[in-house]
Amino acid sequence: TKWTTALRYKPYQEWSKQELIDIKQKIDQSHWRLGYHIQPSTGLLNDPNGFSYFNNQWHLFYQSFPYGAVHGLKSWAHLTSDDLVHWQDHGPALLPGDAQDSHGAYSGSAIPVGDKLFMMYTGNVRDENWIRHPKQDGAWMDKDNQIKKISTPLIENPKPGYTDHFRDPQIIKHEDTYYCLIGGRRADDTGHVLVYQAPEVTGPWSYKTELKFTDKDCGYMIECPNLLFVNNRPVLMFCPQGIEQDVLQYSNVYPNAVVIGEDFDWETFSFINPSAIANLDEGFDVYATHGFNAPDGRALAVSWVGLPDTTYPSDEEGWANCFSLVKELKIKDDHLYQIPVVENNQLVKETLNSKEITPQAKLSFKLGASLVGSITLKTELNEELQIILDTTNGKILVDRTNAGVPFATDFGTTRSTKVTAGKEIQADLYLDNTVFELYVNGGRKVITGRIFPQGKQFFVESENIEVKKVILDKIY
Ligand code: FRU
User: Fold this and answer.
1) Catalytic activity annotated for this protein (predicted)?
2) Which of 54, 123, 337, 409 could form a disulfide with 100 if both were Cys (CB 3.0 to 4.6 A apart)?
3) CA–CA separation, 108 vs 63, rounded Å?
4) pLDDT at 1 (0 to 100)
């Protein structure tokens, strides 16, 4: 398929059922599909949207283009779960194509209000000259999961002084007021997070201030701002584009960053004593992490495992990208921890003693102080993902150079991170065929990435490290 602009923006109703069946058939033959990670049923998945708890279920949506592995006309696809581990995909739910979202139902969030779920999202509207006119739109989902869009935008235009890069509203409630955070690019080409407020979710929405969370320059644009509270402290996860390497050192095309404050001032929307800007994930493929404060008291988040402006080997099979596991966020010693939610323990089927592992496995390992050790995941074709731990210098290196079909090689094929020198390292590696998530020292550091081996079997080799292996369940 040649993905012209016209084809990428062809209205959904003009695609035939047969075209979707054909893509599905092709995807069913793939050996790169995942066993327990959220993946698109067809086409491209990107940002997580609308993560919420409503009507006694977890709800999660994904940015979706169902007809191919390209960034085309986006909709929200709907997932529900009783346990944050087993998800049911209900397919396209919030569809684009009306005046307020003609060229895509872009990212946003959701919050229960009364007996409905309120969704706020960006309507990507383009005119005949392909100029953007972003709208911040609303929609209601009822208890039968039926969605009704509100045709009048909640916020009609970007604030004067800001460009048409103005999107990804995150709605939160504090006391009796609704607030919404929007990612934006000022006319002076700097990236910011704008805060709006309203007495009711449906409005009237008025501009309040820019969020104050750093005194550093955040590049030219911020996408997907996400504010939540962990141990009562504010945590902002965001995607700065064009941020300087001396503000944040990163290797991916764009980073997914995080700042933690000591406290939060709701009057001025300021972080009190914000931390430095840090990477949320030290790996290859994490972006647009989206979380919320769940009614059970946990701060939960899920990441897009995939990056903008990047092609992946599975594109040719008609699908791309996946989500991370759902993670619980905690703060210990001023540091953000990401821990797969405890419900994931249900996935554990049995322990394993052989060198050969299933494509769905969890490897747990430890390396004592002052040692160097490694773990290698190999396929029968000798493709390998290598993890080297060095407790003398406090360093972890993940190398996917020879892990299969190469991709995104311009951004390097290794990632490394520092941990405390002279201390033991403990880590859990979740492998799910073509995605891995490495949680180091209880989630203090996370290294996530994709690999696309041509081989189908995995073997584990290790040096100096004892590895505990368990088989995990396949749920798709
Ligand atoms: C981030 C992003 C958002 C936008 C969405 C469109 O990956 O570019 O800013 O709303 O994807 O799919």
Assistant:
1) Hydrolysis of terminal non-reducing beta-D-fructofuranoside residues in beta-D-fructofuranosides
2) 123
3) 9
4) 82
For the question of residue 334 being annotated catalytic, the response is no
Please tell me the distance from the alpha carbon of residue 373 to that of residue 391, in angstroms, as a whole number.
9
pLDDT tens digits, residue range 384-407? 999 999 999 999 999 999 999 999
3-state class (DSSP) for residue 178 = strand
Give the ligand 1 atom nearest the CA of 287: 7
ipTM > 0.95, yes or no: yes
Domain spanning 346-472: which superfamily?
Exo-inulinase; domain 1 (2.60.120.560)
Residue count of the chain: 476
Strands 322-323 and 299-305: antiparallel
Provide the residue type at 291 as one letter: G
- Top mutation candidate among 8, 224, 252 for ligand 1, by most atoms within 8 Å of CB: 224
Using CB atoms within 10 A of its CB, is residue 29 exposed (0-12), middle (13-18) or buried (19+)? exposed
**Which pLDDT score is estimated for 298?**
98
Q: Please give the helix or strand (H or E) that residue 5 lies within, else none.
A: helix 5-8
Phi-psi region for residue 267, left (φ > 0), alpha (ψ -120 to 50) or beta?
Answer: alpha
| Statement: the pTM of the whole predicted model exceeds 0.90 | yes
Beta carbons within 8 Å of 174's beta carbon, 6+ residues apart: 266
* Residue carrying structure tokens 């997070």: 193
Among 74, 223, 239, 256, name the best residue to mutate to test ligand 1's pocket (greatest count of ligand atoms within 8 A of Cβ): 223
Pull the structure tokens for residue 428.
């859990």
Residue 126 is given by DSSP the state: B
Lining ligand 1 with CB less than 6 A are 46-47, 63, 74, 106-107, 122, 167-168, 223-224, 288, 308
End-to-end Cα distance, the chain = 28
* Alpha-carbon span 437 to 362, nearest angstrom: 10
Report how far Cα 152 is from the mean position of its chain's Cα atoms.
29
Angle at 37 between CA 35 and CA 41, to 5 degrees: 85
Amino acid at 466: E
